[in-house]
Amino acid sequence: MLKGFIILLLIVVLIIIIYLIPAWIPVKYAIKEYNFNEYKNYILVKENIYTGAPWLKLGDDKGFYNKNNIYEVWLEGEKIPIITSPTESDNIYLCEVDEKVGEVIIYNMSYEKFKVINWYPVYPIKRETVILPGWLYPAGFLNKYDFEAGIPW
């Protein structure tokens, strides 16, 4: 009985380790706010979970906006993986962009449109965890699970 329990426990630990190893292999590193000055012509965005444009512009190369100046924008170019819980969006992305490239009009609403040249997640990366506690997952980089459909958190 004890031997069977130990074998079962070892199998569970092995599965957890195999599952966590890819979670700790960096694919794209996050940047910290004090490093923003290393980038030129950027905007800060996060996912818009409400109707309208898919992104909220939170700031630009002059810094973060106050809450009254946040507005919806449209991004084209690089696809940004969205690491969010089903109920809220907290991850912020720094997107290097060409100047505003136009406007998108949907249902008589006009949204600024930017072409994304490159993007970086802003530290810390937040994830909704289901299986294991959140401290087991990296906050400083995206891993292969973040780029796959059906994130196994």
From TrEMBL:
Top-rank lineage group of the source organism: Bacteria
Listed transmembrane segments: 6-25
Keyword Membrane: yes
Keywords from the UniProt entry: Membrane, Transmembrane, Transmembrane helix
Protein name: Uncharacterized protein
The species this protein was found in: Lachnoanaerobaculum saburreum F0468
